[in-house]
Amino acid sequence: MNLEGIHIRGVGAVSAAGWTGADLLRTVREGNPLPAVNCARPGDERTWPCPVRLVPPPPPDKTARHPRMRRSSSITRYSVAAALGALADAGHDPAAPPPGLGILYVMMNGCVNYTGRFFNEVLQNPAQASPLIFPETVFNAPASHIASFLGIDGVVSTLVGNPTMIVEALDTAAFWIRSGIVEECLIIAAEECDWLSAEALTYYHPKLIASEGAGALLLSAKDSGQRVHEVIGPLCYTTWDERAALLPDLAAQTRAKLTGDAILIDDRCGIDRIDRAEQAAWSGAPWQAVRSPKLILGESLGAATVLQLVLGTLEARDTRQPVVVSMPGANTAAYACVITP
Amino acid sequence: MSFLPSQRIAITGAGIVSPLGLGWEANERALAADRSAFKPVDFFDTSGLIAKTGGVVDLPAENPFHSIPPRKQGNVDRGTRMLLLAIREALAQAGRNGMEGIDALVVGTSAGAMPLGEAYFESARHDPGRVPSQLSRAEHYQPQRQMNSIADEFGWRGPIIIVSNACASGANAIGWAADMIRSGRCKRVLAGGFDAIARLVFAGFDSLRALAPSGIPRPFDAQRDGLALGEGAGVMLLEAEDARQSDALGDVTGYSTATDLHHLTQPDPEGKAAIRTMTNACVQAGVSPAQIGYINSHGTGTPFNDVAEASAIAAWAGDAVSTIPVSSTKSAMGHLLGGAGAVEAVICLMALRGQWLPASLNVRTIDPAVRFDLVQKFRQARFEHALTNSFGFGGTNATLVLQRRSA
Asked: Which of A322, B154, B195, B301 lies at a C-alpha separation of 20 to 30 Å from B221?
């Protein structure tokens, strides 16, 4: 991968911690897991606990107004707020985005609220299923809404998959920028919570807590901002045993790139069976600090890795230290990167 | 916007699975016979829906996944099976036994493994208790988990990129793969798209009244009344020319994508984004509209799409418009959604290789917006460059330009 000369000029985040990157940084640094609430289920007959950590209601200044936003679900609202945050962080006027802006959007689960609602209508009576809802179920609906909101008629693309897919998006955005296809590129990843996905997580482990949110990175060739200095990976796998075997190599390759102190942002969620391989891979190094956003926020699937990257950017900016981001992934590929001030 | 140099991206293998048949030869025969392939959809209950037919793929009874034990075969979605068959054909055509030496797999899909997600939903809805089999559904519903099945089948490990830009996904995946080669990161990429007919999606298009009630799509007909859904997969093996390890069947010479902001599901009536993608893809390919010898249109058969695309082609081609042959192969196999762009790119390659033009079927009276040469019967032709358009929900427009290599 080649991110040479590419900078992260701005970041934005919406998470269970709040509607800004500053909320994310402060909450993760404080290190106290956010309170969880039981996820409501239609009929409310669930016989086992299913806790979730949801994004709090938006402050008034984060409520975006646009015709496309009237029907959009929470994943789009989070994404728009994160994107606007990244643009503002980069010094752009969000009301007048820069020309030549592209969008790469990443998700794992997607527009689950409207999808569940529409499919429920189909099962009940397909003749009465709402034609207004169906288009909102499509994976690229949020990216389309953001493009419309910002007036971006150039390249806009959505990737689906493992949360670490965002690293592939970084690589492609860098290529687009170097090639002149775009001037700057917003990389956005997001997820929204619903009862089905929250329950699905509990099948992986009963203590996994579902969360949601969005993060955005504004990539640019302009010489300001933080740099994704090194990217290690992809180390590809299809099983957890393979993943566990690859992570020590991922950590060793990353460490070899470091010359001094660094902060580690890992992917641990607080469940030993899931965390063990990553914890072992990165242990033994004198990290200046270790941040584990999932321990605080919960598991936000496709948004989890971008929230790590946003956090890493803010840490590098604030501490002037390099930040290592460990991105072991869920089921296809592991990456790590070093973000430098 | 600047444009990348027109680096030659060789296509050294291609695979196609469509309602017209499994493989290049079956599809070529069907297209040459102006055959269409619509039949009742019977994987789910279509009562209560207006449309009841689609372009259904006849998959072989035996499961193509040799690495998956019989008890786990249910974890592999129908669409993934189609994709595997198309990949196998593309690799074989390039003289390869497996995926060794492939740097990446880039796949477009709109629905992924939707039927597994539907099964998860139905089980959860009916049973508030913990159902152990739900874990498997939750796991394998994920499109990347389906792609892992393919990686496992070949014992291959490499980056898997899944593009989901609705009905433009397949074309975007091929363009994305070409960009990965142009960037220098990859020498050899398998790229394509797939989708199987799924209940949610079928009911969704039905709810939009986008499906032809008769089940017969009539792209560019003045009285067209909707599309037919189909399913299938198309795959190309793309190689950097300087690293090519087998004979090239053709080249991907141009690619462009842009966004139509008009509406979430309806195209801008003038097709402004399509004009840009056709223009930019041709600039990258170094060809003028007059040099395009065939356009495989998006051509869904809906009233809005076809008039917008016809207007865009006319505006883009200018004086050359009346000489450019255009057809929609969706008239024969339906709209393959995330697979459409890739399957239609493979059809363009087949047409370039065979020097023939597939037809737009079922046209009774040509829409007055059509100013191009609408191909209504299969015919022979001599041409060097083909262009294919794909437009998706969300406004994603994509255009690919392919060039012939002598057989």
From this structure: B195
- Show which of residues 331-350 on chain B sit within 8 Å of chain A, judged by CB atoms: none
Catalytic residue check, B348: no
What is the domain range of residue A49? 7-220
A2 in a structural domain = no
Token pair 């840490």 is at which residue? Answer: A315
Find the CATH number of the domain harbouring A317: 3.40.47.10
Does residue A318 lie in a domain region? yes
Flag if B273 and A153 touch (Cβ within 8 Å): yes
One domain for residues A56 and A182: yes
| Contact yes or no for A157 and B176 at CB 8 A | yes
The residue from A220, A255, A288 where one domain ends is A220
Nearest to B135 among A137, A155, A203 (CB): A203
**What domain count does chain A have?**
2
Q: Are residues A204 and A263 in the same domain?
A: no
Task: Print burial letters for B83-94: b (CB count within 10 Å at least 16), e (below 16).
Answer: bbbbbbbbbebb
Residues B169, A157: Cα–Cα separation, whole Å:
9
A100/B contact by beta carbon, under 8 A: yes
Residue ending a domain, among A220, A248, A277, is: A220
Per DSSP, the residues of A47-59 read SS--EEEPPPPPP
Q: pTM value? A: 0.97
Q: How many CB atoms lie within 10 A of CB B270?
A: 15
- Please report the sign of the dihedral spanned by the C-alpha atoms of residue A245, residue A248, residue A250, residue A252: negative
Domain match, A109 and A250 both: no
Catalytic residue among B167, B186, B282, B348: B167
Mutation for testing the A interface, residue in B6, B103, B118, B162 having most A CBs under 10 Å: B162
Helix%, strand%, coil% for chain B, nearest 5: 40, 20, 40
List chain A pLDDT tens, one digit each, 341 residues.
889 999 999 999 999 999 999 999 999 999 999 999 999 998 878 888 999 999 999 998 888 888 888 888 999 999 999 999 999 999 999 888 899 999 999 999 999 999 999 999 999 999 999 999 999 999 999 999 999 999 999 999 999 999 999 999 999 999 999 999 999 999 999 999 999 999 999 999 999 999 999 999 999 999 899 999 899 999 999 999 999 999 999 999 999 999 899 999 999 999 999 999 999 999 988 899 999 999 999 999 999 999 999 999 999 999 999 999 999 999 999 999 999 99
- Domain-embedded: residue A206: yes
**Domains of chain B, earliest start first:** 9-404 (3.40.47.10)
Q: Are residues A158 and A59 in the same domain?
A: yes
Give the nearest partner residue to A331 out of B144, B172, B392, using CB atoms.
B144
Contact B214, B368 (CB under 8 A): no
Same domain, A317 and A257: yes
